[in-house]
Amino acid sequence: MMDSEPVVQGVGWDLSGEYPAADSAEIDADLETVGTLLADIERRNVALIPLLDDAASLTIESADDAIREAREIFARIERARKLVGDPETYAECCLSVDSQDEQAQALLGRLQSINKRFDELAEPLGQFLDLAPEEVVESYLDDPAVAPARFSVEHSRRRRHELLPLAEENLVTGLGEDGIHAWGRLYDQLSGTLTCEVTVGNELRTTGIAEAAGLMQKPDDKLRENAWRAINAAWDEHAESCAAAINAIAGWRLEMCRKRSARAGATVHYLDAPLHANRIQQETLDTVLKVAEEGIPLARRAALLQAKAYGKSHYGPWDNRAPAPVADGEAGGPIAYEEALDLIAGAYGEVEPAMGDFVRMMAEKNWIEGTVGPRKRPGAYCTGFLKSRTPRVYMTYTGGGSDVITLAHELGHAFHSWVMRDLPDSQRRYGMSIAETASTFGETIVRDALLRRADSPSAALDIVWEEAAALVTFILNIPTRFEFERNFHDARAERPVLPRELKTMMSAAWKKWYGESIGEGDPMFWASKLHFYISGLSFYNFPYLFGYLFSLGVYARREAFGDEFYPRYQALLRDTGRMTTEDLADKHLGVDLTQPDFWRDTLAMMEPRIDHFEALVNAQAQS
User: What is the pTM of this model?
Assistant: First the structure.
């Protein structure tokens, strides 16, 4: 009897430990408890709201009752956050796998009004802690139950000058669900149901967008181009809808900047919010972008080498997730899901056995979603449930080498949350830029481990290829996204931007960063890239560049730190929710992120790796 063929695609994830279904009694019970908590918060807010208009003149004595109530409100907000957050995470997980799941859609609709009420009732505590004098806030924090929230309170106060009056903040929150967030939900629904027609060989095949994107990981250059053009054609049919959505989302944010500027008596820039959310300074971002620009020649060289390996003179936008080309007589099949997990667990375990054990636990508990489906949403992410403090990883696994690296990346996110699971909830929320540290670190250790095991030049090329692809992505593609989003916001401040203008703007950004390395830009990238439509986050791009370089800087210290590396790495991850990024780097690495030295040293690590890549590409061309 012949052995069965290995299963390439991943297995489905198990969410049953959280809730049995989107319409379950368990969700009803949690939301009923949320209702009780919110009613109690509303009653206690009576002690805070009258003080807000003159909060700056409060003393410890005059705010004594309010301080006690504020502590009680904080405890209830933290509990309610879990009970309303987990059903929302559950619904989003269901919709990621089946974008037409009506029960999950109904649950999200139900949660909209609860979220609005939650945000409105949490606002008075936020304003009280932002606006009260420092001595009042110190008195509030002088209690073991709220003391762990010190960093989040102090960090929030840095934007206190932008606060609108309570009624206006609540109005913004209330209108947001059917305003900015509705546009984001519309895009999510569209991306999950959109289909395209891809020419595969001599056959015209209808697929979902996520499935078509998987074809761009195949070694067949023409197939990848066909898939890219098919995806773009599908999005182009909806260009007007996407333009309406992206203009509405950016327009909302810009209007909020204008309102907050009037309140602050100073300009509130559209980058202020993402910088604050990422807990980094403008000076740090400027330095990272400057060093990335210095790295353009090296990254373009990598892109051109990838093109050369395929016998082309230029890199194409369909090459972003291309695998190494297969040499004649060395055709290899896809990497089975179980094999990929073993590879990642082994690489993680070389850093620390506990890291490998974590990967195996994620697999054994079926906390990873890797199936292929026509109604799956595109992309990959890591999420988690607050009550159980357990992570989940989502992707569409089709066996490409890029999929293995994506899985390693998302498992890095999951490990980050896992090592923080025993911390207070207020210390487990961290900025996006530092969130990419463990994920990109995971990519790097997997690539290096695989390279050490490579037993032929072809096998080595497969691994080094992914490293070169990462350099192209982070040094060219991510800044391209930032360039577009910044230029788009500047233009949107004057008027809505037309679809043809969005295409031109996007192509110009590609040309600026990719330059002579690329044959053509990607004019529809503004529509096809999910990140531009995340209504709760703007500029979801520079954190990847930051995380890539920062994680390489951490990785570079692995050998120097020796046996101390893992404890120091774990300590760094655990501090991400209670420090600014600059302070984190100073404490754990002894570096100043506002200066270019650390970033330049990190980028310089890549030059010998690209030299190695060039040697392998040239050897393949001569064979």
Answer: 0.86
